[in-house]
Amino acid sequence: AARGGEDSNSGVLTPAAGSESPELISGGAMILYPPRWVDKGLVSTEGMSTVTCVPLLGGIPAAVLNVGQTSSSIIMPTIVDLGSPFSLMNVAAGKALGLEAKETTMTFANKPLSALPLDEKLPLTAVADAGGRGQIRPLEQALVGDAGIFQSLQLIEEPAGLIGLDVLGKGRLILSIASQQLWSATPGAHADE
Q1: In angstroms, rounded to a whole number, what is the distance separating the alpha carbons of residues 37 and 34?
Q2: CA geometry: angle at 96 spanning 92 and 101, to 5°?
Q3: How far is C-alpha 188 from the geometric centre of its chain's CA atoms?
């Protein structure tokens, strides 16, 4: 039984009985909480991985992640993009990870992209030295290219990435711009993932 509800007139999630905040009652929903609710402890992040973000040009949040297997991983900023259906990384990141890209006919903002065939999932781990802990959902596939977003944010020379809904859209996710942190359900921790 659902503990919250949807107001049929407005399409807005309403708080569950006796609760101050709405609860996610179906996958794919986005809930916008009032400013600083997470920081004040009004939204539970218990059991979730914590990833520190850094603001890029224009305040765009970038998660600081350790990408790859332990022996060959790299720390890089990864733009948090809730509007992108896929994740990608710049050419410098692909090279640093030792991944060989295969040519595709795909483009993103008129820039060519190559596919990174991943023999195994590429772990995405929060950086402890930056205040993070735990892992978020790994990359199962990735594209590589110096897309316009990397050029606009001057993220061409050093490894950088963008995590989209293929990573962020599966399981519970909380993003606080005010505290520059992202919380993600730990992979495998919840049945709905």
Answers
A1: 6
A2: 70
A3: 16
Q: How many CB atoms lie within 10 A of CB 150?
A: 23
Distances (CA, A) of 3 to 15, 46, 156: 8, 19, 46
Rounded Cα–Cα distance for residues 128 and 126 (Å): 6
Q: pLDDT by residue (tens digit) across 52-75? A: 999 999 899 999 999 988 778 999
DSSP state of 133: B
Q: Is the pTM higher than 0.70?
A: yes
Measuring CA to CA, which residue among 135, 140, 127 is closest to residue 188? 135
- CA 72 to CA 129: how far, in whole Å? 18
* Cα–Cα distance measured from residue 147 to residue 111, given in angstroms and rounded to the nearest whole number: 6
| CA-to-CA dists, residue 174 to 40, 101, 138, 182, angstroms | 14, 32, 17, 6
- Is residue 144 within 8 Å of 88, Cβ to Cβ? yes
